[in-house]
Amino acid sequence: MRYLLEKKLMRPLEDKTRKSQRIFLFLDYDGTLTSIQRTPDLALLSSPMRRILKHLSSLPEIVLSIISGRALKEIERLVNLKGLNYIGNHGLEMKIGGEMDEIPQARRIRKTMSLFYQKIKQRTKEIPGVLLENKGLTLGIHYRLAKSKQLSELRKIIISILSPFNKDYELRTGKKVLEIRPKTRRNKGWAVNKIIRQYNSRKKQRTLYFYFGDDLTDEDAFELTNSKGGHSILVNRGYRDSQAHYYLHGPKEVRFFLTWLKKRIIQKNRENL
């Protein structure tokens, strides 16, 4: 994995940007556009980051998509910009070009998630620091504020509740969070591929792909981006095994790169006038 902002990498990227007719830009939210916070409600988009996203979305070459594990309505509210694609719940629900799309079993899944929420809430009320987040199509169990020695007990509770539903639901791990998700082929990689296929016309275009993410749930999207010859970027201060080809240290460096990209595109367009 190489540092994306190395001069040796930025020079050829500038050349690719100049030659590209379309640039797909996929951005995770938590840990990528915003820093990870003690609780999800504190992870708010900064004004400078919102401005650069707004500028990028106005450029005709850019197809900008925010892809998140949060619920679709929530990620739309947090970013609050028009002209973007929004993917919520890891691709279980999305709005592409203003058109809604969600997993066919959504109604049944929401009912089951409510059931999980009530059962886990009841059995974890004696474990301080556990925060439940019912996102409709998934359920997040945050333990960042809980004591580490209680994690084993928390896992046992969740696994016992999930056990009768193992055929249709699974437990996934993220940054200080456990997440119950329906078993489906939909994930962030599936969502990225759907967007690419929807926007790519039969006419061949020189296309550039970027995917920025910070968590294990982004690995499917890294793999898909790599298969397209694109640039997969892990946004993480600490190194870990990943399918990403590049890394950045945090949201500030993401904003730096996005600003750099915007300037290169504007400069190219002026030269082509």
Describe this structure in words.
- The chain has 273 residues and is α/β, with parallel strands linked by helices.
- The chain has 2 domains: 2-103 and 185-271, 3-Layer(aba) Sandwich (Rossmann fold), CATH 3.40.50.1000; 106-182, Trehalose-6-phosphate phosphatase related protein, domain 2 (Alpha-Beta Plaits), CATH 3.30.70.
- The chain is built from 8 helices and 13 strands.
- The chain has helices at 7-19, 47-57, 72-79, 106-123, 151-162, 188-199, 219-227, 251-271, and strands at 2-3, 22-27, 62-67, 85-88, 93-96, 99-102, 131-134, 139-142, 169-174, 177-182, 207-213, 231-235, 246-248.
- It has a 9-stranded mixed β-sheet with strand order 1-13-12-11-2-3-4-5-6, sandwiched between helices.
- A hairpin with a 4-residue loop joins strand 7 (131-134) and strand 8 (139-142).
- The longest helix is centred in the last third of the chain and has 21 residues, at 251-271.
- The model has no long low-confidence stretch (mean pLDDT 91).
Please sum up the structure shown.
Helices cover 38% and strands 22% of the residues. It is an alpha/beta fold.
